[in-house]
Amino acid sequence: xxxxxxxxxxxxxxxxxxxxxxxxxxxxxxxxxxxxxxxxxxxxxxxxxxxxxxxxxxxxxxxxxxxxxxxxxxxxxxxxxxxxxxxxxxxxxxxxxxxxxxxxxxxxxxxxxxx
Length: 115
Hints:
The chain has 115 residues and is α+β, with helices and mostly antiparallel strands. It has a domain at 6-78: Beta-grasp domain (Ubiquitin-like (UB roll), Roll), CATH 3.10.20.30. It is 23% helix and 29% strand. It has helices spanning 33-40, 48-53, 85-96, and strands at residues 6-16, 19-28, 55-58, 61-63, 74-78. A five-stranded mixed sheet has the order 2-1-5-3-4, covered by helices on one side. β1 (6-16) and β2 form a beta hairpin. The radius of gyration is 21 Å and the shape is elongated. 10% of the residues are buried. Pfam families: Ub-RnfH.
């Protein structure tokens, strides 16, 4: 916290793959997560339906909109996954094949199988 009683927080949102928008804010002491998101104006382009479906985390831990902020917090606005990570991994593995993927893909010359 700065001497004048303000908090420094960062609001981060990834609207699309490999595109990240972030906003550094200075908030009053005791500010809420919802206030920081509103002041960041990162969600202004989204419709109300999409905004209601978004989840929020602070440093990767699920948070509510009424949680109090602390100095240095990083608020992450999350969107739904398009593909289940387990399914994506299975499909990627099936496409690559067992020989070219995984822990044992590159063997040392003269090394034993599985090491």
